[in-house]
Amino acid sequence: MSNYTEILSKIQTLNKTEKVSLFEELKKQLYSPCDDEFSEEELAESESEWQNYLRGKDTGKSVEEIELELFGGELE
After folding, report:
1. Domain residue ranges in the chain
2. Taking the CB of residue 71, how many other CB atoms lie within 10 A of it?
3. What DSSP character marks residue 35?
């Protein structure tokens, strides 16, 4: 937590205008899309595939198929 304490100490030395600017920048970073978030298109595709699976239109892959894709063969 020393980094947090150091940063907080530095923030306390800022004037009000600088603190407001910092706050606004932090809000932008907090609410901007992250690399690990899914796009609306990806979510819609996932939902569609899930519905296909539930309706029996897509039975998914067997364990053997997944092992082959991931590991190049079956695991023991």
Report:
1. 42-71
2. 9
3. T
CA 39 to CA 50: how far, in whole Å? 17
pTM over 0.70: no
CA atoms of 61 and 64, how far apart (whole Å)? 8
SS3 content of the chain, % helix, strand, coil (to 5): 65, 0, 35
Confidence at 64, pLDDT banded by 50, 70, 90 = confident
Q: Could you give the angle at the alpha carbon of 60 between the alpha carbons of 56 and 61, nearest 5°?
A: 150
State the average pLDDT over residues 15-19.
Answer: 95
Degrees, nearest 5: CA angle 72-50-56: 90
Residues in the chain: 76
